[in-house]
Design goal:
single chain, about 90 residues, mainly alpha, elongated
Length: about 90
């Protein structure tokens, strides 16, 4: 009688992939908010522009915070921090 062995699941790798997907979604949404802010600039709604840019900035910071919990992102984290200081 053969027993079936469940394939080894690398939870760390799966978690990292999910976190990367979430980070990408946060960044995509941040850029969408910036595009909307650009449209609002042409419409003259300065208050809404400031709100949208603030929300986009917050989302970008949240996305970067994911790098602190992903061990495989060490080199990417260094590159992004260097880029932010330029």
């Amino acid at each position: 009688m053969e027993t079936q062995v469940a394939p080894k699941i690398d939870l760390q790798a799966r978690t990292e992939r999910v976190c990367f997907a979430l980070m990408q979604s946060e960044i995509d949404l941040a850029f969408s908010l910036l595009r909307l802010a650009e449209a609002e600039i042409r419409g003259g709604d300065d208050a809404h522009v400031r709100e949208l840019v603030g929300r986009a900035s917050t989302m970008y910071k949240v996305a970067l915070s994911y790098l602190d919990v992903l061990p495989v992102c060490g080199q990417a984290r260094v590159s992004l921090r260097r880029e932010r200081t330029l």
